[in-house]
Design a protein that fits this description.
By secondary structure, this protein is an alpha/beta fold. The chain is built from twelve helices and 20 strands. The protein has four domains: about 130 residues, Immunoglobulin-like, CATH 2.60.40.3670; about 180 residues, 3-Layer(aba) Sandwich (Rossmann fold); about 40 residues, no CATH class; about 90 residues, no CATH class. Helix content is about 35%, strand content about 30%. The longest helix has 23 residues.
């Protein structure tokens, strides 16, 4: 067996009641002891627009350049920026650019690729270009050569991310090996034209089993695009606030992709009569609400994508039970399946019957790990809802809601998230709008907090 399914209720014993009640169920999928990592086909899709070449200058250095008249204002990808006037290469060489950290990251991840893997490198701006076509991992030295070519590329002034995604998927199609894991890793620092086309390419990737992971650099990228692209395909979304962190984050993401042991996982939930699925969230490796699909007489099918041994998934389900009499109670059953790498076209399936003990007088013994999951999901929902309301309501009402939400987060032992909401309330009260940078940080932190803060459900 190449995977393991763990199902646990928040409390295995519940109080008998004449009323319907809500219970929490965690589903965790883990690789089996004999699981082996699959070969990986990966397309690296890199934003090489002009904004990636802007020099990163500290405030003190900027003020010094301004005083000496050595900078000029320009517009890159619709974003105001400053550029050092031509003619002084000595000044330019002092300051790094985002594209320099991309080059360092490519050299670093070249060391991770295995001979069994394949990779491609695509650059995009106003147009897209394949720098390295689909290539075996034995030729990873080509990444070193390509890293030095990035700064010399001339791909136009605009950003057409969809063109880069199209080429990335095209390169994966040139090496169709059944059972291989497939991933596109997209890196960008700005907004793009033709957002609808990006979603279309992501939709085309899903039936092929291609996960799309996104890395947004700096504070001027479109998280409203990058996060849904990753969620919809089973990939990961990263906020690279400091460009110097890019090599480590890209190394982390490739490492996760290289740990895939099973492809095309699916959870099938069959509920007993009168049991209702209220909501379902993915909690690990990051919090996101999932759509369970249509209710087919109590049956739901939830695609989970690939099983990453270094970042296995955990789900939190909210079930509404009918009035239940004392004794053993089975709310339904769960089946997890994935492709069988050893036998193309067949699937491995593991089933488990859900079980609760209903008693007339019981002190519920809550599982600490699942209780933490419930708390993290509540924090995620609270922040998401409050931020949405802050942009849609009048200033005073929205400010009060932000402050109330911050107080609740403090009660939930989330001081960092609470502090950011309080800063948003202050920004709204003083300037009439929330801070876009803090909103971006919250969007990502409320998702990733579960990675660092939540134990596996069976652990305390």
């Amino acid at each position: 067996m190449e995977l393991e399914l763990r199902c646990q209720f928040l409390s295995p014993k519940i109080q008998a009641s004449s009323q319907a009640r809500l219970v929490y169920l965690s589903l965790e999928v883990l690789p089996g002891s004999a699981a082996v990592a699959l070969p990986l086909d990966v397309s690296l899709v890199i934003d090489c627009s002009n904004s990636m070449h802007i020099l990163m200058v500290s405030n003190d250095a900027f003020n010094q350049l301004a005083r000496t008249g050595q900078i000029m204002e320009v517009i890159n990808d619709g974003v105001p920026a400053w550029r050092i006037r031509a003619g002084d290469d000595r000044i330019v060489s002092k300051f790094p650019r985002r594209i320099d950290f991309v080059a360092s990251a490519l050299k670093q991840i070249a060391e991770q690729l295995r001979p069994i893997d394949h990779y491609a490198l695509i650059a995009f701006a106003a147009s897209a270009r394949t720098l390295i076509p689909n290539t075996p991992g034995t030729e990873r030295q080509r990444l070193y050569q390509a890293a030095g070519q990035l700064e010399r590329l001339q791909l136009g002034d605009e950003t057409e991310m969809a063109d880069g995604l199209a080429l990335g998927l095209e390169e994966l199609s040139t090496h169709e090996v059944p059972g291989n894991a497939k991933r596109v890793i997209l890196l960008t620092d700005g907004y793009t034209r033709n957002v609808a086309q990006c979603y279309q390419w992501a939709e085309r990737a899903k039936p092929r089993g291609v996960a799309l992971s996104t890395l947004g650099i700096g504070n001027d990228f479109n998280e409203d695009l990058l996060i849904p692209l990753a969620d919809a395909s089973g990939g990961h979304a990263y906020y690279v606030e400091k460009p110097e962190d890019l090599p480590d984050i890209l190394h982390q993401e490739l490492g996760i992709a290289l740990s895939i042991t099973c492809r095309a996982m699916t959870v099938q939930l069959q509920l007993a009569s009168n049991v209702t699925l209220r909501r379902i969230h993915r909690v690990l490796p990051g919090v996101a609400r999932l759509e369970p699909g249509a209710n087919q007489d109590g049956s739901y099918t939830i695609p989970l994508g690939d099983l990453e041994a270094s970042a296995p998934p955990a789900l939190l389900l909210e079930l509404v039970l009918p009035a239940v009499k004392p004794g053993p109670y089975h709310p339904g059953q769960v089946a997890i399946s994935c492709e069988d790498a050893s036998q193309p076209g067949s699937r491995i399936t593991h089933r488990q019957v859900l079980a609760l003990q209903v008693e007339t007088d019981v002190v519920e013994d809550r599982q600490p790990g699942i209780a933490k999951m419930v708390q993290k999901v509540a924090a995620y929902e609270l922040c998401t809802r409050t931020l949405a309301e802050a942009t849609a309501q009048d200033r005073s009402n929205a400010t009060r809601k932000l402050q109330t939400a911050a107080t609740r987060l403090l009660d939930m032992n989330e001081p960092s998230l609470a502090g950011m909401l309080l800063r948003q309330a202050e920004a709204l009260e003083q300037r009439g709008q929330v801070d876009a940078t803090i909103t971006k940080r919250l969007r990502y932190d409320t998702r990733s907090v579960a990675i660092a803060g939540t134990a596996r459900a069976g652990e305390s």
